[in-house]
Amino acid sequence: MRLIRISFVLLILVLSAGIAFAQEAQPEPRLADTYVFGGDFDSYAKFVTYWTVINGAAKDTRVCGDLGYNGSNCAFQFKGHNPEKTRLTQVINPEFRYGTEDLHYGFFSARVKPIKGEINLRFAFTFTFKDGSPAVKTSYTYTGTGPALDYETIYFETESSFNPKTIKLAKVNIRNFSENFSTVYVDYITIGMNIVAPE
Fold first, then answer.
1. Using one digit for the tens of pLDDT, what is the confidence trace for 94-123?
2. What is the pLDDT of residues 125-148, one digit of tens each?
3. What share of the chain is helix, strand, coil (3-state, %, to 5)?
4. Domain total of the chain
5. pTM (2 decimals)?
6. CATH of the domain at 48
């Protein structure tokens, strides 16, 4: 039986598993309905509490001054170095927000704005489970060239479905493979669930 995945958060109808795309005009995810803390980077307290920067230099950090997506103040800046591979990560112990045990797909969404040079970012998220089921990991590689006029949308889903009530931990990982001091802003990072329902 063909499955229809109905997004409760992004209100996007997705017709095939594992879709990844980058484009400018997409419906707004609601940060309050997702698992990521401080995904808009406007709160310094949430940034230092929930996010970890690995292999970062001074320029790999939260930046502010009306630089964020859709008029928000802040974003995270990656500035490529050689041979540095900066990572921005967050590990979440999510509280399941839906009163159902129906199968779901996980989704990842973010906004990206190349500022300078050739950009190469790998976005990934992983779910581990309380019942010992194999971890579900999905990734997407973004490439672009700066300067860009506006933010682009990154959105992709897990290829396999699962019961969100069994999730133990969720991990967000963004790794910068850009070089030669290429610069990019990342903002509005979210992960969440899309229900799988029979037709």
1. 765 555 667 888 999 999 999 999 999 999
2. 999 999 999 999 999 999 999 999
3. 10, 50, 40
4. 1
5. 0.81
6. 2.60.120.260
